[in-house]
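Chain A, query sequence.
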Amino acid sequence: MIVFPNCKINLGLHILRKREDGYHDLETVFYPVKFSDILEIITERSQTNEPVQYSQTGLHIQGEPADNLCIKAYTLLKKDFPELPPVKMHLHKVIPTGAGLGGGSADAAFTLRLLNDQFKLNLTEASLLEYALALGSDCPFFIKNQPVYATGRGEIMEPVEVDLSGYTLVLINPGIHVPTAKAFTAIRPSIPAISIREIIAQPVSTWTDELVNDFEKTVFYEYPEIASIKEELYQCGAAYAAMSGSGSTVFGLFPPGKALILNLPDTYFIKVVPA
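Chain A, predicted structure.
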């Protein structure tokens, strides 16, 4: 079976408080984006001692194979479902990694969903959400994969109406890796005067001054090049622009009929999709 794990953007992101367990409580709106990796899983018919034969094409993923989230997702289910057969797993990686787009989390969540469907594990959405959270804070969103207002670590989700029909979404990644821990260094958690859920209900034209990603202040100071991308998007006519997650991808929302003429280096990753 083949699935297409899509990425996400964050529409606003507030860090509310640091928890005793070391995580941070946040609020954000996760919004799914029509831009995907390709994941295929088939049963391995030959005799093998390897539960997963993993292969990959496309963009390179840094790290050890043991840290691969797709393999971790299989291993997590295998503990509770020992009857899971050995599989061949192939990932064609298109979404940039470490970019604030949740690509790795999407691959993990879609692996859970695919294994559940392909091998008829009969897991409920609630169970899949629990498994997904064990793999990462962003993973549960990709089980639901619809616009949600998220709190807690990002796992407490409520459906939210976000009407971006007619808008064009531009994703720009300069190839800068922003360590999440570094992005948190200068964050001062606080409760905002207006909730993101309230702001998101207003027209996109009002978001510029109110819909804020708390990571931008720190990341833009450390990496001015990322800040300049946001400025370029506004100069080119974006109705709203922001960094997604802890970066380094910056996105812009362009209204219908707006011509896109971007003055950016050829080395940047740029993707234009319907919002």
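The radius of gyration is 19 Å. The first strand starts at residue 2 and ends at 3.
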